[in-house]
Amino acid sequence: TVKTQSMTQCITIQVGQCGNQIGCRFWDLALREHARVNKDGCFDDALGTFFRNVDTRFDPPADLPVGEGRTPIASLRARAILVDMEEGVINETLKGPLGDVFDARQRITSVSGCGNNWAVGHLQYGPQYRESILEAIQTAAEKCDCLQSFLIMHSIGGGTGSGLGSYIVEMLKDEYPEVYRFVTAVFPSEDDDVVTSPYNSVLAAHQLIEYADCVLPVENQALIDICDKINPKSLSSRSGGSGAGGPARPTTSQGAHQPHNALGDGPKKPFDSMNNIVANMLLHLTASPRFEGALNVDINEITMNLVPFPRMHFLVPSLTPLHALADAACPPRRLDQMFTDAFSRDYQLIRADPRHGMYLACALLLRGEVEVSGVRRNIDRLRPSLRFAAWNQDAWKTGLCAVPPLGQTRALLCLANNTCVTSTLSVLRDRFLKLYRCKAYKHHFVSEGMDEARFDSSLSSLTTVMRLYDDMLTAPADLPPRLPLY
Asked: Which residues does residue 317 pair with via DSSP β-bridges, in sequence order?
């Protein structure tokens, strides 16, 4: 039986260079997916999830309703808010092939940037641009019949993404407490070239712990490692910046992404392919609200099923197949192999080993030619080898969407609330402590009006979450855990 979802909408908020470059790739792929499925050129519920259909003869453009799904597509506008305190990336996007997809009124930019300083983004630009950002969000929300969630994309290593990005997440909780906040946060590499990224990362992580509903952590170095494996001839650099960003651009071939040198004549960096992986992950996450399937999963069910306790909402993503993202001619992956891959660190978007941790809950979101019986068989096959919490042995959430990703026959996104995330968080903490113990660079943050106590409170928040996850490993198997008290 094929089921469809009732019409709901999501609004994306792209913050900083990294967030906007991932967003650019996301919208390119979303348009290609819908173009492949939507053969009659009519605006339907699927398109309405992320797009508005507008008549540009009016100023501002007038929205055209979905109706019975027979209204011709006039002009599509993305339900997106573009935010950056440097206007270069957004201007490049608006001048490119996707420029007409974005409403210029949904763009908030400045010219000076945040100087890789969380305090500038959070304490200076946050209050300064709060009303402008909130007005853009309210305008987008008013165009929705049933606003389901916000999807926030940013990196936590730089200034705008970490500072202003985390400010926006907090603002959304205050202004839209009933709308779920899903945050895709790109974690910096250990050897990145932003000297203040250890501070930025922990300060931002504290905000995400407190104000996000779900955080999908993505490690810059994990993306580089994956890109090296799936396309070794094109990717020669293993150095990591502060986010998965380089000028992302639409491709001309379905399902394949051709990397280019984002930094001119220097060594090639796999920014395009890295953006491609994250964008595909987000399209997987939102496939059920957009397309029909045998087992639809409302995106908000992810939070309900995978977050057993407050603040323990870090969901480790893994995606398979990966080689098909670089080579559309790659033969289809066997279903059994895909399930095995999904629980391997080689297919995770962070470098932690899930086999060394405990699963608190797990979601399996499949797209394409997959039968329910095949899913059940593989869960039964893998269950004995996976360590699940004794009080939640059946913590599996499964979704089946009939429409596969571009260039593939089927694919699988696994989202795992696994204690292994503590190893990723511990890297943030250790890098932070190296600077903080000698008070290096601290004055740059304090001079922007930041209370020095915020360093300690942010570190304490991160350490507390790590301890909560670690406690799950040592809790007696016959006792259910107690709800953490704060």
From this structure: 415
Q: Could you count the other beta carbons within 10 Å of the beta carbon of residue 482?
A: 9
Q: Which two tokens stand for residue 61?
A: 């453009």
Check if the beta carbon of residue 148 is closer than 8 Å to that of residue 232.
no
The DSSP element (H or E) to which 320 belongs, if any, is: strand 316-320
Contacts of residue 114, defined as CB under 8 A and 6 or more positions apart, other chains included, come to 85, 120, 121, 125, 158, 159, 160, 163, 164
Count Cβ atoms below 10 Å from residue 383 Cβ, excluding itself: 12
Q: Is the dihedral of CA 423, 424, 425, 430 positive or negative?
A: positive
Rounded to 10 degrees, the C-alpha dihedral 178/184/186/187 comes to 60
CA dist 390 and 471 (Å) reads: 13
Structure pTM?
0.89
> How far is the C-alpha of 104 from the C-alpha of 480, rounded, in Å?
51
In the chain (486 residues long), the average pLDDT of successive 10-residue segments reads: 63 97 96 92 92 90 79 94 95 92 93 94 97 97 94 97 98 97 96 93 98 97 91 49 42 30 38 92 94 89 94 97 72 90 95 94 95 95 94 93 92 97 97 96 96 97 97 74 54
Q: What is the pLDDT of residue 26?
A: 97
Q: Which residues contact 310 (CB under 8 A, 6 or more apart)?
A: 484, 486
Do residues 406 and 321 touch, judged by C-beta distance below 8 A? no
The H or E element containing residue 454 is helix 453-474
Among 146, 114, 128, 138, residue whose Cα is nearest residue 15:
114
- Compute and round to an integer the Cα radius of gyration of the chain: 21
Q: Which residue has the tokens 């080579």?
A: 327
Per DSSP, what are the bridge partners of residue 153?
14, 184
